[in-house]
Each structure stands twice: as C-alpha cells, then as structure tokens.
Amino acid sequence: MPVKQSELEQVKELLSSYMNVQKAIKRLTKEHQSSMGISYEQLRILKICAENEQLLLRDILYEVKGKHPIVAANIRGLAEKGLLQVKNFYLSLTEKGKMILEEDEINTYTYKAFMKICSEIQEDEIGKMIIVNQKVAKLLNR
C-alpha cells in the first residue's frame, strides 16, 4: 500500500516534534547535572554503582561502554569529590555519593521540565497530550 505524500509529511513532522522534546529534556538534564557539579556521565556512573553495592572497575567499563581513559577520568573525578570510593578495583558509593543521588531524585530534571510544561499549557491541552502519549506508548509496546 503506497504512502501518500501528506501522510509522509505528517510522520516527519511528528517525529521531528518528539525529537525536539527529547533534545530539550536532554539539555535540561545537562543543566541540572551541571548545577550539581557533575557531568551526565558521572551521574550515570553513580547510578550504576547504586544498583550494585560492590562493583568491579571492569564491570563499570562494560556497563558504561565508554572509552577507558574517559571512564577512568570520570571515576577519578567522582572519587576526588568524595562521591565514590575505589578500593582494590571495587567501586562503591560514599555517603556523600548517596546524598547526591537522593538530591537528583528529589530535584529530578524531568519533573522540572514537565512542571514548566504544565505551568504554560492549558489544562485541557495537557489532558489531550496525556491521552495521545498513552496511545503512543501502547502502540509502541505491542
């Protein structure tokens, strides 16, 4: 079944709008993490360490899938800030590292982004967005 040009244009526009929202949230994420004094990659390392009480250095390298020198520099930076402890090739969060993660959850960028959206979009439009997003999620999860 051939696709009409107008349908193709709609698909492009819809995809573009989702990508623009994703880019905006990513930008807000980076701003939030920067305000905490750590990078996106460092926060990711902290979250991975939080999921595992004792994590081997090689495991984090596999999990992050980054270049070894960059990951090592991020780990060193976290250790220097007192957020991560490195002992005998094992990584673990310090109390300060746990507090940063708790602050991130409380102050999460996604909530901030959506609070901004909710403050500037009318309630009926938000309701419609919720319905559309639920339909999209349902379609994509089939």
From TrEMBL:
Organism annotation: Listeria fleischmannii subsp. fleischmannii
Domain of life: Bacteria
Name of protein: MarR family transcriptional regulator
InterPro entries linked to this entry: WH-like_DNA-bd_sf, WH_DNA-bd_sf
